[in-house]
Structures are given as structure tokens and as C-alpha cells.
Amino acid sequence: MDEACRSTVQLFFLVSGFFWKPENVDHPGAYLRRLFPKLAIPFVLWAVIYLFLDWSEWLYPGVENRSWRTYVFTLWSGGIAFHLWFLPALFVGTAIGLTLLRTFGMRCALIGAFVLFFIGTLLGAYLRPFGIEAQLSLYRNGIFFAPIFLIAGYYLKGLTTLPSLPTFAAIAVIGAVGNLLEGIYIVGSYPNGHDLSLSTLPFGVGVFGLFLHLRSEASNLASWGRDVFGAYLAHVLIMKTLIAVLAPQSSLWLIAFVIVVTLVLSLVFSRYAKKNRWLRHLAP
Known about the structure:
Elements: H1 8-18, H2 22-26, H3 28-56, H4 68-72, H5 74-77, H6 86-126, H7 136-139, H8 146-158, H9 165-187, H10 200-212, H11 219-222, H12 228-246, H13 252-275
Helix pairs in contact: 1-8, 1-10, 3-6, 6-8, 8-10, 9-10, 12-13
């Protein structure tokens, strides 16, 4: 289950790149100025919330072995609110991706972004067999991780004809199997999952391609898509609280219960927050 979820963050970046427009590439500075407050405001608000809850242990136990580094690197890695790394990574990755596209064009931008991804993979996975383990924030970030997925999303949007659904399915399966094998033999963290290896790229692109082929008439379900970002920001708080309340119990059914309840409550919170004048910045 953990390995299967390792395509999710890639999907966020792929979706973000998919919604880029040609004018964003032509005028990246203007786009970045609009994007910054949309990411910075919720990042700061949620970082304060998570830091307070960790310090006060009001809802769940705090992180052990905290140090000054835990707080200093929050703006880059999310710190205690580890999932917030996506926001600065999205901004930095967007700046790099749009600059590459505007300066060099699509083909060279893809090559350049892949080189960055490859370097990040070496730092994050392939040095581990030699006993060298880099900090997660050094390679899973907006420099090495985000640009290739953002540019790939924009590339797929520009195709007049998408590769077939079986093609994307094959890419996803190859990526999933490769991710699993790298997790076992290279990263050495299986079954706890890992965040960056060579197979992460085809895994994410393959799954994204499958979604591109889906055509759903379920408009009520699709309408929840706009609430995903807010749900992502809130889900760790809800999940940690549920785990703290239910601990020390542990079973497959309990894990499934926590996942379902976290998903539902996160989406409901996001939708409610958007409509509340005091909470809307928590779920933009």
C-alpha cells in the first residue's frame, strides 16, 4: 500500500504543469508573482499551526529529537509539517521549469529537467548502497524533483494525440515494479516506501496518463477536485489526531478506517474553509 501511494506527489506536480498556459511560459515573471502569495500564505499559516500543535502536544504527541534544524529548514522542507515541502517545491520547480521552457524550448527543457532528476536520484537513492544517506530535503525538492514532472505535464497537454491507455498502463506497471525493486535492492527502505528513485518518473507519468484517458460524467464527484489542495494541507493534522486517539491499536481494518475518515474529513474541511471568511486562506 505504501509503495502504491508513491505516485501521488508526482501527480500533483504533473497536474500543476498540465494547467500551465503558453502565456505563462512567455512571461514567467508575471506568473510567478501571482503564484507566490497563493502558496506562501497557506504555507505560513499551516506551518504555524503544525509547529504549535507539535510544541503544545495538544492533539497528538510531538516529534521526538527536535533540534534547531527542525525549525530553520521549515521554509524549505516543511520541517515538522513534512508534507508542506510541496509548496516551496512547486514554486521553485515552476520557476526552473518555465525558465527552461522559455530559454531552450520543450525538448531541451525536458532533457535539462531529467538531468536534474537524475542527479537527485543519485543523491537520494543510489548513494545509499555505499553507506551515504543524504537528508531528504537535499534531493526531494523544487530543484531536483519538481521540474521534470511539471514540464512533463505541460508536454502531455500540448500533444494532439495522447499515447493509448494500454501504453500508459504499461508505463505505470513498469514504474511500479521498478519502484518496488529499487525500494528493496537500492534504497533499502521497503516496505516503508521511498520518495525518489529512477522508477518514480515512469510510475508517476504512467498513472497520470491513465487519469487523462478517464472521461467521467460524475460531475458531483469531479467538483471535489477543487478541494484537494486544501485537503492535502489539512490531512496530516487529521490523520495524526486520529492515530493519537486510536493508539495503541493497530490492524488492517483500523488503518483502512483512518485512511477513509482522513480523506472524508479533509475534503469536507477544505470545502467548508473555502466558504468561511476566516478560514479561506487555509484552503485556497
